[in-house]
Amino acid sequence: MRISGDLTFPGDKSISHRALMLAALTNGECIIDNLSTGVDVESTRQCLMTCGVQSEKNGKQVVITGNTLKNPASDLDCGNSGTTARLLTGLLAGQGITTTLTGDKSLSQRPMERIIQPLGLMGASFENENGYLPLRLNSAPLTGIEYSPPVASAQVKSAILFAGLGAEGETTVIEKTKTRDHTERMLHVLGADIRLDGNRSTIKKLENPLKPFAMKVPSDPSTAAFFAAAAALVPGSNLILKGILSNPTRTGFFSALEKMGAGMECLNQWKENGEDVGDLRIFHQSLKGINISGNQIPVVIDELPILAILATQAEGVTMVQDARELRVKESDRISAICVNLRRMGANVEELEDGFVITGPTPLHSAQITTHNDHRIAMAFTIAGLISDEPITLDNSDCIAISCPEFDYLLKQVVR
Ligand code: S3P
């Protein structure tokens, strides 16, 4: 078996959420092509529709008619999506909406205090006892703040900037460590009054609705990462990833993969709607262990589960530190990675803020507990490609959260 051919992927999840939300603030019809097909992005679209936004979906193309936000008649179900819950809370707070946001079991255990606190400082009025969903938001006028989030989180930054679109004066977010900057790039391209200076972003209140836009969402690098890893792991592989988002705040996985020794060639690079995009060739070469920590973590945060699988096949030690945030993702990913990899026979040490993996070790058949976490399920599906006997997942349906076509895409390139 080897991995070869070329693949394009559904649109990036982070950009898709933001495109839908910002389309709702325009005064006309927006066309978004190659929208993420994941359930998470559909949660955002459904929540916006519940708030009166008109939307039509035709395959991967979605038309949104903006300027129609109103208080929803029912609660907003954010499903499994932290991005929906946090960004939408900021956006709706800025637009004076009263509503309750809810989520599934996993999302209801993820911290919301990180947005409640800064949005509260801006004047947002919440009814919430414990810092978790459900979260009641009451309409209140907002005023800009200057804020430095204590955790490196693009969701927190974006929630504050989105709220700033409806807040009097200026709203500034200063990041200690740079996180993905799609919100800032998109607001800039759409003509919002945003100033960017290193890790400091300042937004002014929108005096008029944004202008309607048309855009194509680049292929999701966080999904592509699983396929790139498969090509890096399986001898004789050679895979081309086409039209991949290559914004430097998202390419941490590919930099790490290259540092581990995988074959990598950038075939093309261009700009689309203010974002960097490229075609990338990945081929198998022997891998070695690396260290990842500090400000390298936010740019690889979603890809650490698949990086852990790679580490089991790399010569020497791979150490990931400062990744405590992994414990409050869709599952406790540090624990999920370590427990499942140990079941497969890997040499893994769990750290409070990461893990240490010593390789290479053969991987064996095992029962994988996914905790209904899409990235754990996809990472271990790739591990299953190189295990001596097939693995079983307790739930593979959760993969649809980010990539319903994962199995289909994998079948296209496994030869
Ligand atoms: C996201 C930000 C990150 C990331 C998540 C998507 C975004 O979360 O893990 O998958 O679209 O802003 P945090 O902001 O919690 O780090």
Describe this structure in words.
- It is a single chain.
- With 415 residues, the chain is α/β, with parallel strands linked by helices.
- It has 2 domains: 12-216, UDP-n-acetylglucosamine1-carboxyvinyl-transferase, Chain, CATH 3.65.10.10; 218-413, Enolpyruvate transferase domain (UDP-n-acetylglucosamine1-carboxyvinyl-transferase, Chain).
- The protein is built from 12 helices and 24 strands.
- It has helices at residues 13-23, 39-50, 82-94, 113-121, 154-164, 182-189, 221-233, 252-260, 304-311, 333-343, 374-385, 406-413, and strands spanning 4-8, 29-33, 54-58, 61-65, 76-77, 99-102, 125-127, 135-138, 142-143, 146-147, 167-168, 170-174, 194-197, 200-204, 214-216, 238-245, 263-272, 275-283, 291-292, 316-320, 347-351, 354-359, 367-368, 392-393.
- The protein has a 4-stranded mixed β-sheet. Strands 3-4-2-15 form a 4-stranded mixed β-sheet, covered by helices on one side.
- Helix 11 (374-385) links the parallel strand 23 (367-368) and strand 24.
- Helix 4 (113-121) runs parallel beside helix 5 (154-164) and helix 7 runs parallel beside helix 11.
- The longest helix has 13 residues, at 82-94.
- It is globular.
- It starts with a strand and ends with a helix.
- The chain binds shikimate-3-phosphate.
- Shikimate-3-phosphate binds next to helix 3 and helix 5.
- The site of shikimate-3-phosphate (S3P) has 11 residues, from helix 3 and helix 5.
